[in-house]
Write a structure and sequence with these properties.
This protein has helices at residues 2-18, 28-41, 53-60, 89-98, 265-278, 295-300, 319-323, 344-350; strands at 64-73, 105-115, 121-124, 134-138, 144-153, 158-162, 185-190, 198-209, 219-222, 234-237, 242-249, 260-264, 284-285, 288-292, 309-314, 330-334, 337-338, 357-364, 367-374, 376-377. It is an alpha+beta fold.
């Protein structure tokens, strides 16, 4: 039945793409190209088959690695919730999605990664190598190498590690996650529960998901089966391009229930040069806290739906304060980009170069005003309990 429905769908799509809006057939290579593009985006080949997962798996399994770490952790009495101030953002997030911290002592953890350069550079999650005293990487041919961390960014849970394999290694091709469509076929490869090079498939369930992992989360949601141990592995489209790094699951049982999340690869590509060169990421900062514009506020302003970012706090002497931003303003535009959701604002600011002048628009007392702000540098918290500002 499934095959019949799929064949009917392909026939319908072929008909729609192959003919013009008035029923005229689009002859020539241009018509064929458009037809292949539409079918390709839907993950359906022109022969009517599903994506060739067999070929994709054979091509990509050699670039996916098993990452194991050894670390010493402090103990914590089970059943007694720790103070929030004692744990960093990565630790809190890992406990929320992957379970309670283990008792003190030497522990091993398992994750995944994939090779991005022939010199042995590997992408994985920051939480996979967090506090690791020793990192071991196992290739698909079972060879093992000790790895060192080149750079990591806990805020986006991205890390780059490297092994010295004494030879050129196969590499993954990084795609364009902005082109990814909801409903598109994807494949996940990793080491769930330590099961090396496991392959699963599904579709993109949603894009731009905010799940409370941090101020810069905007995840790809997929129903491709992702489990503990998949973290750091690639999410791949039907063309064999990496479009995301598998990062988290939402589950009450610890197993997959159809809600997995991956960091978009375009965000990763932005951060890679800094991680390789400096070992960390430098981000823009404007010194203000924001919150969502509620439907009630939007209605009072005569808007059909909420948009923009409501200024909930301004740091005295910070870039926003010097630029004239005031408590209660609604930022509607940043550097020529409309702010559709409040969660978009911290990401826009973080991507901005330090010392760059940015034009913003704010709504104040129902009047839209232009504001110029010189972006500063976001500093890391100096004390365990210090909270990060959203922008």
């Amino acid at each position: 039945m499934h095959r019949i429905v799929m064949l009917c769908l392909v026939f319908l799509l072929t008909s729609v793409v192959g003919f013009g809006c008035w029923g005229r057939k689009s002859d020539g290579p241009e018509g064929s190209r458009r037809q292949a593009e539409v079918l390709g985006k839907l993950g359906v080949s022109q022969s009517g088959k599903m994506p060739d997962f067999v070929t994709l798996a054979k091509r990509l399994q050699p670039v996916v690695v098993n990452v194991s770490t050894t670390q010493t952790t402090r103990g914590r009495e089970l059943g007694i919730p720790p103070q929030q101030e004692e744990r960093g953002p990565t630790e809190q997030f890992s406990e929320k999605y992957f379970g309670a911290q283990q008792p003190a002592g030497a522990q091993r953890s398992l994750g995944s990664g994939f090779i991005i350069a022939s010199d042995g550079s590997i992408l994985t999650n920051s939480h996979v190598v967090e506090n690791a005293e020793k990192i071991m990487v196992k290739l698909s041919d079972k060879r093992e190498f000790e790895a060192k961390v080149l750079g990591k960014d806990p805020k986006t849970d991205i890390a780059v590690i490297r092994i010295d394999a004494k030879e050129s290694l196969p590499t993954a091709q990084l795609g364009d996650s902005d082109r990814l469509e909801v409903g598109e076929w994807v494949m996940a490869i990793g080491n769930p529960f330590g099961l090396d090079n496991s392959v699963t498939s599904g579709i993109v369930s949603a894009k731009g998901r905010h799940i409370g992992a941090g101020p810069y989360d905007s995840f790809i949601q997929t129903d491709a089966s992702i489990n503990p141990g998949n973290s750091g592995g690639p999410l791949v489209n039907a063309r064999g391009e990496v479009v995301g790094i598998n990062m988290a699951i939402v589950s009450q049982t610890g197993g997959n229930i159809g809600r997995g999340f991956a960091t978009p690869v375009n965000l990763v590509k932005e951060l890679l040069p800094q991680l390789k060169a400096k070992g960390k990421v430098t981000r823009g900062w404007v010194g203000m806290a924001i919150q969502e514009v509620t439907p009630e506020i939007a209605k009072s302003l005569g808007w059909e739906k909420p948009r923009g970012a409501l200024v909930a706090g301004v740091i005295e002497g910070g870039p926003a304060d010097r630029g004239g931003i005031k408590l209660g303003d609604i930022v509607t535009e940043y550097n020529g980009q409309e702010i559709k959701e409040a969660n978009d604002f911290p990401i826009m600011v973080a991507r901005t170069a330090v010392d760059k002048e940015i034009q913003m628009k704010v709504l104040r007392e129902r009047k839209e005003l232009p504001v110029t702000v010189t972006v500063g540098e976001l500093k890391e918290p100096q004390t365990p309990g210090q909270k990060e500002k959203a922008g």
